[in-house]
Specification:
two-stranded parallel sheet, elongated, three-stranded antiparallel beta sheet, 150 residues, 2 domains, Arc Repressor Mutant, subunit A, mainly alpha
């Protein structure tokens, strides 16, 4: 459980699972946030405190871990300058925007517009962002922030 309101279905489901003796994992939240009250309470009642995926991984049975690991593929790391997408597939506007974005840091729309001011109109920016997102090359995050997808 990450968040749950006082009378939410998530809260009811978690309490039913606890009554059945099932394991519950809860992410602790800010004590002043109303939606964090339930996960924090569940942790006090015995839910597993979960901060990262490793916390869940540690609790998995050994045979489940072995099955999951058998399906993992080890791939060599790609050079930092390598691109998954051929430049010839991108329009000039898309290339400019794609060059501004990073896979590990969200770039706000305002910043994209500021950086391309004078060379690309806002309508061309919106169009290019739309095309890049449809192609699966970028992703829009909440707050009109954009990142490369890999």
């Amino acid at each position: 459980m990450v968040e749950a309101g006082e009378y939410s279905g998530t809260r009811i489901t978690a309490h039913c699972a606890l009554e059945q003796g099932r394991e519950i994992f809860a992410v602790p939240g800010n004590v002043t946030n109303r939606n964090s009250w339930e996960p924090n309470t569940l942790i006090k009642q015995g839910a597993k405190l979960t901060a990262t995926w490793e916390d869940v991984w540690e609790q998995l049975p050994a045979d489940t871990k072995l099955q999951l690991e058998a399906n993992w593929r080890v791939e060599s790391a790609k050079p930092a300058e390598a691109s998954l997408f051929a430049d010839s597939q991108l329009s000039p506007h898309e290339k400019r925007i794609f060059a501004l974005l990073k896979p590990d840091e969200a770039v706000p729309l305002d910043q994209i517009i500021e950086r391309l001011e004078g060379e690309t109109s806002s309508s061309e920016i919106f169009s290019a962002l739309f095309e890049l997102e449809l192609a699966g090359k970028i992703k829009e995050l909440p707050g009109k922030n954009y990142v490369k997808t890999f």
